[in-house]
Amino acid sequence: GAGVSQSPSNKVTEKGKDVELRCDPISGHTALYWYRQRLGQGLEFLIYFQGNSAPDKSGLPSDRFSAERTGESVSTLTIQRTQQEDSAVYLCASSPWTSSNTEAFFGQGTRLTVV
Amino acid sequence: AQTVTQSQPEMSVQEAETVTLSCTYDTSESDYYLFWYKQPPSRQMILVIRQEAYKQQNATENRFSVNFQKAAKSFSLKISDSQLGDAAMYFCAYSAAGKSTFGDGTTLTVKP
Over the stretch B43-87, which tens digit does the pLDDT of each residue have? Predict the structure, then answer.
């Protein structure tokens, strides 16, 4: 596809269950980001992948959160033992490696509701 | 580490008036880009305007313009002739060496 694709667009899960969120970046984009956005709030950085470099995991809020990316393709964000405070929109973005002109392209996000 | 600060969590403007959103950043890089993104209620992030740090001339895109003060590390967004469709959350972003950093956002309300 032409843009960043995220699935599912909405997810309702029971407290304590694990969830997997998927992000398909734009083809050829080496950088991939995950952000969390609570209702009416700003972007909370979670994790950053750049090519084959070690990911920057400094934003992951707890060890219940993890993310993987294979090469420069799909990424999955996994939240284990979900809690109600995990309810938020999870946004994925990708960008190409072209010097410093790295505009980020965002997906539509996954709205996660933990009940 | 690079940081981006948006000191105004919320702003409001009357339709047809002008509003300025503030952004400051901290960096030791000399080559970087700055961006303003808009996130309407649909939550799809849209690029509004970009500025190359090596360019002294302020970027302009129709009703949107920036005031880039490199020495002060300031990058404000001016919206002229505000329209109801401008209501959104606006994010300032810095990019260098392949990585973007975003501010916390400013929610803009446009009053009819």
Answer: 899 999 999 998 889 999 999 999 999 999 999 999 999 999 999
Q: How many Cβ atoms from other residues are within 10 Å of residue B41's Cβ? A: 8
Query: pLDDT at residue B97 above 80?
Result: no
Which pLDDT belongs to residue B29? 85
Percentage of chain A lying above the pLDDT 90 cut: 74
Would the CA dihedral through B60, B66, B69, B70 be positive or negative?
Answer: negative
Domains, chain A, ordered by start: 5-98+105-114 (2.60.40.10)
Least Cα distance to A48 among A78, A6, A92 occurs for A92
Note whether B104 contacts A: Cβ–Cβ < 8 A.
yes
Nearest by CB: B95 against A41, A91, A100: A100
CA nearest B44: which of A4, A101, A10, A29? A4
Tell me the pLDDT band of A68, cut-offs 50, 70 and 90: very high
Alpha helices in A10-91 (DSSP H): none
Which tokens go with A112? Answer: 């996660």
CB B31 within 8 A of CB B56: no
Is the confidence at residue B35, as pLDDT, over 70? yes
Domains of chain B in start order, with CATH, are: 3-111 (2.60.40.10)
Interface of A with B in 86-105 (CB under 8 A): 89, 91, 93, 95, 97, 99-104
| Interface contact flag, A50 B98, Cβ < 8 Å | yes
